[in-house]
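QUALITY CONTROL LOG
STEP: pairwise intake check
CHECKER ROLE: data steward
CRITERIA: each record must contain a sequence immediately followed by its structure tokens, with no blank fields

ENTRY 1 OF 2
RESULT FIELD BELOW
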Amino acid sequence: MLHALQHTAQRPGRYPGAVSPPQDSRTLRAARRLCQQVGARLGTRVSVELWDGSVHPLGPDPEPGLRIYLDGPGVLGSLLRRPTLANLLRQYASGGIDLRGGDLITFFEVLREKRSRGGYRTLRKRELIGAALPFLLTPGRATPTRHAYSGDETGLVRARRDETDFIRFHYDVGNEFYGLFLDPRMQYSCAYFTDWQGELEQAQYDKLELICRKLRLQPGEHLLDIGCGWGGLVCHAAAFHGVRAHGVTLSPEQASFAKRRVSELGLADRVTIELRDYRELEGSFDKISSIGMAEHVGIANLPAYFSKVRSLLRDRGILLNHAITRRAKRSRRAFARIRPEQRLIKKYVFPGSELDHIGHTLECMEAHGFEVHDVEGLREHYARTTRLWCQRLSAREREAIALVGPERYRLWVAYLAGVSFAFGDGSLRIFQTVATRHRAKGPSGMPPTRSHLYA
């Protein structure tokens, strides 16, 4: 669980606003003994720095400077009484736990090195309990979190589901904040790497081009981008593929930025941006893109979503649905269960989000008049994308804290790192699905090969 932490610039002092605990020799001795017992079993290259400044390696070959700092005995007391991911995250977000000598990605990779050899499993509960006893009566460290969603973050109760509120909580953290880690086009979706060592900027350009080619955009066609973000796709499609493009978003911050970008690029005669709910749209479009939108809709609302999209798309028009998914489970009940890490993401970063599995999404699309042609998995592409985002945000820590404060910065770094490893391990997936609308039987209008994607 320690991978949900991140390095900060506070060194070697304490987190701002923290109250120095009394130097209790009993708890210090117990903490040192606990470190010794854990270190003997784990053998990691990380050390623990206690609140008195002493450093204790958690293995025989520690990496110089790579330390987990504990702000006081109350941190250990709190974690030992309630060893949950939520409590760990709160301790980190409020500064009770700090990482020094590396960013979160580095710590996570180092702490995982021994996991495959069973190091964590060899810890003896009796030894841990003996060392932990002095902390069980230690007053816990207060961990207030100011940046939590105040409503029903799950969004499962339709009557209380507020799409606008969900979107604004996530996206209106500020354009300047997102600009710290996104590429210049402000692409906040999975990049497409033609080389695993490639740069983010090129990979995001290649993603935009891949989407446009999959949509088979032709000059003069009318493109709708549902959930257009900061307008990167509609601007690219208009500038390089000659289409007329319309983007809609529920985020005022995004809409303002996108309109300004359209004007700066001289595309006002071909691109329009609207602050509007997609359910209010009317008219007919030749092609429709939905990039990172389905995650906001909610699984129960997907049938209505695809029904509405179908009503906006001309016959034989192409839809590209780009969405994060989870693996299917053996039962619907098991799939519907909200895991602790999912609940934390909903509470602190992405309220209302819900990830389908690809099988159900395809079923919904077919049931509402779409013929599915191509399904491409981009899981490893998103693992690298979010890794780069996390590292870029970490590198600009001071600027981020100045914009959103230390707590929200830490929550976001933990979020980006967590999803990066979830994509890398395979618990999260992402797919681009190409489908056409069919009002009647007959040919789809799609070409016999996919050579147009790579020519």
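ENTRY 2 OF 2
RESULT FIELD BELOW
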Amino acid sequence: MRICIDASVLLNWVLPQAKSPEFDSSFEGLILKHEACAPQLLFAECTSVLRRYVHQRVISHGEASDSLHRLLDLPVMIVQTRRVHEQALDIAEALGHGKAYDAQYLAAARETGALLVTADGGMHTNARRLSIESLLLA
């Protein structure tokens, strides 16, 4: 099975303050047993959030750097098709969103036939509205 992971899942995995004790085993079971994919913006979004946490003094720059390296080492296939961007624009329109960032994850899941794995309740709800199979990790 292929899974499409969003930034919320990866950030919960590398930031201990953001996850439940069961999260690690659930995430690692998924990432080790299934082919993972994500849209092109995944690592840019994670980098931005890590930087914001450093700026807010939630984590140190060193912790952000270590977290980013852990993320970049994950076996994630980046989906870089024109169709993902086109679908994201249509999905954002269908959902009434002013931006298409989250829609790219939904489009990547749809394009690859993957199960969307998210820690974001809104993303999970939107996936279900669009008949995209989704798993909410909490």
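INTAKE CHECK: passed for both entries
DESCRIPTIVE NOTE, ENTRY 2: DSSP finds seven helices and five strands in the chain.
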